[in-house]
Design a protein that fits this description.
The chain has helices at 2-10, 15-22, 27-39, 62-68, 82-101, 133-142, 156-162, 174-179, and strands at 13-14, 43-50, 53-60, 104-107, 115-119, 122-128, 148-152, 169-173, 186-190, 195-199. With 205 residues, it is an alpha+beta fold. It has 2 domains: 1-79, Orthogonal Bundle (Arc Repressor Mutant, subunit A), CATH 1.10.10; 83-199, no CATH class. It has a 5-stranded mixed beta sheet with strand order 4-5-6-7-8. A 3-stranded antiparallel beta sheet has the order 1-3-2, with helices on both faces. The model has no long low-confidence stretch (mean pLDDT 88).
Length: 205
């Protein structure tokens, strides 16, 4: 049930992400279990191809929707642009690591946000940057936000987007989310010194 609830919140999630979250000690067993859930209709298995990479992704299946009392919409994700799907998958990496450490919830959100994470009844809007730094920076200026988490493709992008975000923000990258502990995965931008600085985030400690 927990896996289905997470899949419902994330909308689209890779087999690797689900296995790492729910079968971290034996991801091979996770892959087998996901396939069984797919055959029973709790999940739907899809193959996403991007350049030379092939990813197995899952969405909530008809049986899973029925169990959670959710409306079933077949292949809705096929109408979503590839860039937006990739943003969701990047966001998932952050959310699943937070969800593993503490009670949290992911909510859908309008552009420029990719999603919103709820932790201890506090909202943390999340922006994922994928080649649209200028566009996101312009949109954020008009968005009603008090703070934000921003996931960049690489470290060099942090300063570029930080210059245009006038709200408290924490920044991370794909690399940090995959290879660093969460409390050591974030940066802040010091506007006075014009520098990107490592920040320890105690909430993830």
């Amino acid at each position: 049930m927990a896996l289905l609830k997470v899949t419902d919140q994330l909308r689209i999630v890779t087999a690797k992400q689900l296995s790492a979250r729910f079968w971290s000690n034996n991801m091979e067993n996770g892959d087998k279990s996901l396939k069984k859930l797919g055959k029973k209709g709790y999940l739907l298995r899809h193959v996403l191809k991007n350049k030379n990479k092939t990813m197995v992704i899952y969405t909530l299946g008809p049986a899973g929707c029925k169990l959670l009392n959710k409306p079933y919409q077949p292949n809705w994700w096929a109408r979503v642009e590839l860039k937006e799907i990739l943003k969701i998958l990047v966001f998932n990496q952050l959310y699943l690591r937070i969800h593993h450490s503490m009670d949290s919830k992911a909510l859908q959100a309008p552009y420029p946000l990719t999603s919103v994470i709820i932790i201890n009844n506090r909202e943390f809007p999340v922006l994922v940057v994928r080649g649209d730094i200028g566009e996101i920076a312009r949109e954020v200026r008009w968005a009603d936000l008090n703070r934000a988490m921003v996931i960049c493709e690489e470290h060099e992008q942090i300063e570029k987007i930080a210059l245009n975000i006038n709200i408290p923000a924490r920044f991370t990258t794909d690399y940090e989310l995959c290879f660093k502990s969460l409390n050591e995965a974030f940066y802040s931008y010091n506007r006075e010194a014009d520098t990107v600085e490592k920040e320890t985030v105690d909430i993830f400690g």
